[in-house]
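Researcher: Here's the sequence for the chain we discussed earlier.
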Amino acid sequence: MVSRASGAARESAPPTEKVEPTREAEGAGGAIRHLGFAGDDAALVAALQRGEPGAPAALYDRHALHLRRVLARVLGVDDELPDILHETFAQALSSIDKLADPERLEGWLVRIAVFTARGVIRKRMRRRWLRFMAPEEVPDPGHTPADPQARLALARVRRALDKLPADERIAFTLRYFEQLELKEVADAMAVSLSTVKRRLKSAEKRFVELAQKDPHLRDWLARSQRWSAA
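Model: Thanks. This is the structure I predict for it:
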C-alpha cells in the first residue's frame, strides 16, 4: 500500500538520499516552530533505522491520523484510544529494523495497529459493550450522533459487533468500514486471502443473524441489498 502522506515528498527525495530534518524557524513573536521532516517514507524508514532524532516525530505526524482511524473503526469510541495508538507506535519503533520493504511502511503500520487492537479486544471479551463507531463518524472519534434514532441504531450495531470473534470483527470492520481491498485486509491481518474470505463469510453470517433478531436493525437489513443477500 502506498502511503497517502508521502506522495508529494516522493518526487523531491529519492529513497537512497539521506533525509535531513528541516530546520526550525523563528515565527511571529520570536516563537520557534518545527518545520517537519523532509523525504518520502522510504527515506524516513532509513532515518529511523539510523536513529536520527527527528524521525520518530515525523513518523507520528505522517501516520497517526490514519492509524487512529483504523483503531477507531475496529475498537470504536474508546477512552484508551490514545494509549492504544501510542502502543502501536512504540511497537513500530522497536521493530523498525524488521521492516524489509520501506515502500510498504503504511501497510506495515496498519498491521501493527490491527494486532494491537486484536489484543485489546481479546482482553475485553467478557465486556458486552465495546463501543463502535459507524464509518461516517470516524473522523471525530468522540462524537455521538445527535439524532436519537441514529444513536439507537449505533448502539445496536455496537452490540452485534461485540458478539463477533475478534478476528472476524477485525476482518469485517477493515473490509466494510475501512473499505480495504481483500488483499489489503489479508496483509493487515498477516493471513492468507482464503483465510480472510473465510472469516468475512462467517462474520457476515453472524452479523446478519444478529441484526435479524433486532427490530431496530431488521428494517435496515431488509432495505439493504448487500446484507439481505448475505
